[in-house]
Amino acid sequence: MASRGDVDLVDSYVRSRLEAVLGDSRRELQPQSMSVLCRDLQSLVSADSPELAFVATAVVALLAELLLAAPTGDIFPNEGSEPDDKAEASLWQVLRSLRNACFHPAAVKRGANPAHVDHLARLLQYRNGPLAHRLREDRTSLRSPRMLEMAIILLDELGRLYLERFRAP
Description:
Blueprint: H1 4-22, H2 34-46, H3 53-69, H4 86-103, H5 116-124, H6 129-137, H7 145-167
């Protein structure tokens, strides 16, 4: 989703879905629009500061939630309500797990449910084995530039998938 036109197209989709859920296109939408968050992400990445990697990763997680939750106007849907499309469902699972790891850092293992960082590492195993291993060994790897790179790749894959749908006749 590198081009401004692509970001605007996805932003338009998200806004239209949220307006449909709200039932009123005149209502003010929250300031976290796709366009604004993409601009924020570009600023953070261009700063090329390892200290900002986690902040940028969190912005990626917000973008993913905004895109994937817009059809219902709700928070990121619960596990078990993944999309039917396999490629989208796979991205949905990883990005949801990334979001949970970023925004619920105090969540620890409860019964059969692993901590969010552990779950993220398991889901990343087939996409980026070395990063998954590193994350299992050192949870602070969630803050690394490598995690940011992986998060951007995942968001880009999701964005391209949506763009293909928007442009399909």
